[in-house]
Inverse folding.
């Protein structure tokens, strides 16, 4: 009994130390989440009376043909972006991190190029993307004109539905590669130098060292990168919004879930009829949170089962 009391007394300083963070977490995470969940069961334009509607907003999101089509098109774009992250962006992050880790020739120059997006906001990067790929005055089309391509044959780029998503991925590779690359690079630098040196003495080449020593050792960092990529892919907003506008361009090719949420929460019509519905917007936000929770939980569980990382 006495030992139990002593242990509780020893824990008290830690509990007091954690209390401020817990209060802020509840204020800015838990309480807004509960409020949003309640609002998703209501209808409210932000000014008038709040009306409880039950699960009508969820029926509207998943069963109403027009709304469901818009939502699943946007959600499908989010999923395509996440797949492109995993199969295109993540390998590039690993490759660039290994290049910088190996200190190839001019590695400081490449380091500056890849670190540049870290100091630029996504809005600035997207703005430069629109300047580069504008069909009328874009830098790319001007370069093609200089090379002798006729104006009639110039690509429409962001006005072409087939080109919009590849351009988004291209800009996303440069803008998002930095954070994941930093995590992977820091994990590579923590790999035991003695292990690397021993493998070199045993005759392992650079590719073998990377495949059998470095890659398994950076497993925890890779898990963080993959989970962060899921969260970023589901919550993507600024890049497609800047590139294609509020409605995601032609046929909604760059329409994402957060853009759909934005149109409902802040209005998508004229100033006289903004069509604001905060209850329905809260429904979209709640469903998005549940998808993030589901995907990250599955990813953490699946990657936790992969023993190859540390074997």
């Amino acid at each position: 009994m006495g030992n139990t009391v002593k242990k509780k007394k020893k824990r008290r300083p830690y509990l007091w130390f954690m209390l401020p963070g817990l209060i802020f977490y509840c204020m800015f995470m838990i309480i807004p989440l509960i409020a949003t969940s309640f609002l998703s069961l209501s209808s409210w334009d932000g000014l008038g009376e709040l009306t409880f509607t039950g699960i009508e907003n969820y029926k509207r999101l998943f069963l109403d043909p027009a709304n469901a089509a818009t939502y699943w098109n946007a959600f499908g774009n989010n999923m395509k972006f996440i797949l492109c992250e995993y199969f295109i962006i993540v390998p590039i992050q690993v490759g660039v991190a290994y290049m910088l880790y190996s200190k190839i020739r001019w590695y400081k120059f490449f380091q500056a190029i890849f670190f540049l997006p870290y100091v630029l906001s996504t809005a600035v990067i997207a703005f430069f993307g629109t300047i580069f790929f504008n069909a009328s005055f874009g830098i790319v089309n001007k370069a093609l004109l200089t090379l002798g391509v006729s104006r009639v044959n110039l690509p429409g780029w962001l006005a072409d539905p087939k080109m919009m998503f590849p351009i988004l991925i291209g800009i996303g590779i440069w803008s998002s590669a930095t954070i994941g690359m930093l995590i992977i690079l820091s994990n590579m630098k923590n790999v035991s130098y003695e292990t690397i040196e021993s493998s070199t003495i045993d005759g392992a080449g650079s590719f073998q060292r990377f495949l059998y020593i470095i890659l398994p050792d950076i497993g925890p960092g890779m898990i963080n990168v993959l989970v962060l990529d899921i969260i970023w892919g589901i919550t993507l907003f600024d890049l497609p919004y800047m590139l294609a506008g509020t409605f995601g361009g032609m046929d909604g090719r760059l329409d994402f879930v957060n853009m759909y949420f934005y149109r409902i929460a802040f209005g998508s019509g004229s100033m006289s009829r903004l069509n604001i519905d905060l209850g329905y917007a809260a429904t979209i936000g709640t469903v998005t949170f549940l998808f993030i929770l589901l995907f990250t939980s599955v990813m953490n569980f699946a990657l936790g089962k992969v023993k190859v990382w540390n074997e």
User: Anything to note?
Assistant: The two ends are 43 Å apart (CA to CA).
